[in-house]
Amino acid sequence: VKKHKLLVGIGILFVASMLVVLPAACNRKSNEIVIGAALPLTGPTSYYGEDSKRGIDMALDEINAAGGVRGRKIKIVYEDTQGKGNQAINAVRKLISADNVPAIIGCGTSTETMAVAPVVQENKRVLITPVSSAASISHAGEYIFRSVPSDGFQARDLAEWVRNLNYKRIALIFVNQTWGVSLKDDFVREFQARGGEILTTEASDLDEKDFRTQLTNMKGKTPDGFVAIIYAKEGGILLKQARELGIKGQFFGADPWTKQQFADGAGSAANDVLFTTPAKYQGPEFQTFVENYRKRYGKDPGIYDAHGYDCMKLVAKAIEDGGITGPEIQAAMAKIKGFNGVTGETTFDENGDVTTKGFAKMTWRDGALQPAPTQLATK
Amino acid sequence: MDALPQILVNGLIIGGVYALVAIGYALVYGVLRLINFAHGGVFTVGAFSALVLVEWAHFPLVAAVPTVMLIGAALGFAVERLAYRPVRAAPLLVQIITALGVATIIENGIAAIFGSDARSLPPGLTTSRILGQSVGVRITGVQLFTVLLAIALLVCLWWLVMRTSVGRAMRAVADDTEGAQTSGINVNKIITIAFCVGSALGAVAGLTVAMDVGCDPYMGTVVGFKAFAACVVGGIKSLSGAVIGGLMIGIFENLVAGYVSTEYKTAVVMAVLVTLLLFRPDGLLKTFKERAA
After folding, report:
1. Best of B8, B120, B251, B264 to disrupt the A interface by mutation (most A CBs within 10 Å)?
2. What does pTM read for this prediction?
3. Burial state string for A176-192 with b = 16 or more CB within 10 A and e = fewer than 16
4. What tens digit of pLDDT does each residue of B5-58 get?
């Protein structure tokens, strides 16, 4: 009787494993080119993944409706990175070993992208990120590209802006992971180079929501103004707590503050904050994209929807130009010049960085995201 | 401006939250010798219950607090019945895996229902007057409410544990489960009560944090971790130890942030706690008690 049970057990296991393996095997036989996407679809930075995914899906349908590339349809496999480096590595390893993808769109946070960089380099697969902007990614390897401009440029523009408004003594708070540290370091260097003085740099953890002690420290230094390199919802909470603690000074921030979560968290404290963000390209390609996006999703696209869309189109172009293996796509991608996408022109430099996109200056006013006034009061 | 009073107040408030959550660990560990890893999830459920009640069902705060506590208690009851009781006789490892499984289910269940975005409660409830400006310490209405509620609940808990027959039975089970059973105490009932009480406190802690900074499905992980550390430092079975441990971690982490380094705040706090445990392996309170005896 026992033996019988064992046999049945083995039989069930066999059938079950076939059910798992067969679809993957079928994938490979079909005529589709399989591409991976490793993005934070859950977790505290899930908005990056969700936004990019909408753009990617839209571009994918357009590409396939037009006949695909090299006469073959493209299929995309999504893996969730949860905003964490170790999960991102798992996701990318799975895409490489199980799905054997030659190119991956991802990741979200710079922490994730830096974590997976050695893995894609070693396996010679292309990684193109619609989100990660840390300056350190520039030197992560020749297989890593991005459609968003590096924070090296954002730090420069932000520092220049703060100094031009005549703020000299700044208290700074940053989120203590790759993106925050990298942008903070660059900002401090650029700001000091322009004669600015950094009175204190306070750190916060990624999932921290209580900034009162850091803010108390910053307030104690009596700075001219404040710079907060903090993600969207945390930035909103930070602003609210700053006002509650009686801090009245000007706050400057960076690109995550374009997200609605920032304004939700801050409430009225969001008014008049100043921050830089990758500029939304306003050309004809973008206008068409907005129309189609509205038809498909019933709302307006954010900046990362547009970058997700362009990443998919860039991958498709590199496959068309180069071939379907990682090294072929890498070689073709590196040669892309003057690609007109919905985020503007893409030309890659030798680091896989895009040098052709600028930063915009923004603010919030009564719950609406707006360009910052060109005439601002100087300190 | 001297920042010390403000830093102490900041620490005291978050410490009160840790204390409320830490009690849940201590209660369950006391009667069951089980580390209830799902407890951080109960905290998160409390926060989201507050969101649903206040924002969608328009409950006033006075009604939301007891309702959230009831929801927490019901969740604690369900978790104990459905997840822990079936494996109570199983080896410890099985129980720990079960606890981790429950934590994962709760966290991802909330993410599936509400999405993984952070949410804020309506501003009418959360923005309130700034108090205490004159003495150089600023505290919002929500923070004051957190402190007062924590004190009130801790007094109630003290009364329940020290002054009622249920509390006496609870202490008896914690002391010697088999002895308590032979003297006619319904151990299962006491375990259920411990889960319900601990979860009610954990859930209401979630409510206070939701009012202060909003909620997201992963908020329970960090608070649960720190509250657990508080509980271990205090002496894992001791309720007053959990409260002292909670306040200590809250105040200490803010002092480190204020005067040492915000960058290595958590690392410094944890390093000190580990060192402390090297010298007082049973936690602070246990040692005090033994000394007194």
Report:
1. B120
2. 0.80
3. bbbbbbbbbbbbbebbe
4. 888 988 999 999 999 999 999 999 989 888 899 999 999 999 999 999 988 888
Structure tokens at A230: 């903090």
Do B257 and A237 make contact, defined as CB atoms within 8 angstroms?
Answer: no
* CB contact residues (below 8 A), chain A span 27-66, against chain B: 42-44, 46-47
Spell out which residues of chain B touch residue A44, defining contact as CB-CB under 8 Å.
116, 118, 216, 218
A370 forms beta bridges with A363
Residue with tokens 């007094």: B155
Interface confidence, given as ipTM, is 0.81
Choose, out of A244, A262, A366, the residue to mutate when testing the contact with B (most B CBs < 10 Å).
Answer: A244
Contact yes or no for B258 and A216 at CB 8 A: yes
- Record: contact A219-B1, CB cut-off 8 A: yes
